[in-house]
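Budget justification, computational time. The allocation requested in the original proposal was used primarily to generate structure tokens for proteins on the priority list. As evidence of use, we reproduce two of the resulting records. The first is shown immediately below.
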Amino acid sequence: MRQYIPELMPLIVEALLDGAAVSKREIAVATLGQVVQSTGYVITPYNEYPQLLGLLLKLLNGELVWSTRREVLKVLGIMGALDPHLHKRNQKALPGPHGEVSRPACDSSQQIQSMDEYPMDLWPSFASSDDHYST
């Protein structure tokens, strides 16, 4: 399924942008949640489609039925937390409030894909420290 994401995501985003068809947007939200959950395609959609977060938040505040709002919240939770600095940079790449961006706003080769790419000394420490527990 992951290999089809580049073909699916533009269709899903386009359906989310369709203000005339409420049912189309509701199905797009549910589809986005299922695609993200089944493929583990998290956080990256925000970077590749900078308008996506704003779209989802507008749907959340819009006049949709509560079941759709609940689905939007679920999708936001599944997709994960976004780095605010990266989001701000992505927003600058948008030509308008919901403009189309033909290329990713950031270079995905510079993104860290797993904790293994961090040096060990930068990993968060969950062990006790002598600084916190003096003897």
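The second record produced under the same allocation is shown here.
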Amino acid sequence: MSSLLVSSRGARVVMAASGRGRSVAIASPFSYPGRWRDGRGHIERSSLPCPLIAQRGPCTIEPQHFAESESPALSSVAFSRQEGEAKCGEAEMSSPDDYRGPKFVGIMGHDNVSHNGSKTTVYFVQVQVPEGMFIVKHRYHEFKDFHDKLSSEGYRCPALPPKKFLGSFNKEFIEKRQQELANWLHLLCQFDPASGNSDPRTSELFKEFMLTNKEPLEKYQGTKAISYDATPPTSQSSEDETSMYNTPKTSLDDFELLKVIGKGSYGKVTLVRKKEGKRLFAMKSLNKSNVKRRNQVEHTRTERRVLGRAKHPFIVHLHYAFQTSQKLYFVLDYCPGGELFFHLSRMEKFEPSMARYYCAEITLALEHLHDLGVVYRDLKPENILFDSVGHVLLADFGLAKEGITDGAEGTNSMCGTPEYLPPEILDRVGHGTAVDWWAMGMVLYEMLTGLPPWYTRNRQKLFDRVRNAPLTFPDDVDPVARDFIGGLLRRDPIKRLGSKSADEVKNHPYFSGMSWQDLYDRKIPPPFNPCAAAGNAEETKNFEAEFTKMQINSVENSALGGVRVSDASRPSMTFQGFTYNTPNDLSMSGSVGRG
């Protein structure tokens, strides 16, 4: 028998294995008791989550039992409740420390060379081994041969970017191809032991690809091939990666702390202004000791990697990431419009045109994540933010899973927010990207009606209804919207709308007449501006007063932990590669479709 720890609405759930049995925990990463409906159907929360993003942090698992470490104290807002027999869960992925072979760090640059009388591009793959850092040079066709050989030996590989003949030496294309190949290698290295597949890193093919003709990194540092314009590594890398690009390290000293906008058990979120340029950002700080103690290291790493890779107008952008001896810092887009949940709770429901618009922008964001091989797994109104003019941005990627390209399979972990869990997660039969389309159907239903379908505070009844209850609608939901939501909420993920591709969703009559390129280019005005009445950019009217009234000194003291920032930036092997500066050569321009 397993123990189910339940917080109210808005919390996440993850299955965690232990040596003494299996347990499920539903707990809030930022210590809020969630939300629920009163007798009139209105949403209530007694202590609100961080109204920004990634602001609530990637900390999502609160296992009650551990085999090798002491159980962390559960949030005081959670309460125990027996929910019957729960199915077991596996760890999200193997610990990075379990693997001792050559480690992919990143693709650090490229060069155009002559090979057998023909011009070709070589990419500089950085590899870490016990004796140091090395560079191995590979052409595209060598990546293709490596992919094909791994596949022929039965290893499961992510899709390799296709070969392109026209424009192959265009600077923009080469830089994009460099990023695509880096992402491909990164996904290849994200082995999930729960998948039942073999780890490709243990193959001789992997070692051969990573080590043949390796050369010391020092030989290329400072050269034209490895320069400021290099693609930043998306996997584990040197803590001094920013110095490799000849860019100054970012620290807390670079920001002016303005106002608290979120607080939780793992840290605080602060509205900050960068001293150089005066731009506003949201800075999320996480306490390293809490992250480690609550077994959130891999979730934190995942969030950092996904934020570093995702470049899309409807996904929160990571600008900087840095660390001190005690803290991790994410510097992200400041979203002054607050959460979609914040406004939905006040309006009770949205006009159909509003809901359709937001759903369309969410569709493009999910399409981009899925093109990167990322399944989001935490789409809900609390994680949908508004920018200063009313466009949505998805946030909080601590539950994301990399290396998932199939709609119905790829991982077996049980995680997500109870109200938005699809049947395949509840039944532990494996899941893929289709879980995100299910969640979008739930969110759209909630935007149109004020409540998610099948909603009840009783978790067992909720899960039973998700598995078996018919989907019903209020009379004011039109037939096309009903058909669209019904397609997104098909219980069989293989038959679910979007399972094959986002085009299934985009081509549904619900979006008839939608100009997807104009939407991507932000040319279609949002239906609602949550900041229209704001007096200035620093006004925080869309955030809860319980946070914004906090003394800023408490944030600074907590963030510094009694240590001067300039003296505290010692490297951490646990969070190696966390540092990040936005590369100048990555822009938000592009086209809809493949991200």
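A brief technical remark on that second record: The CA atoms of residues 446 and 452 lie 5 Å apart.
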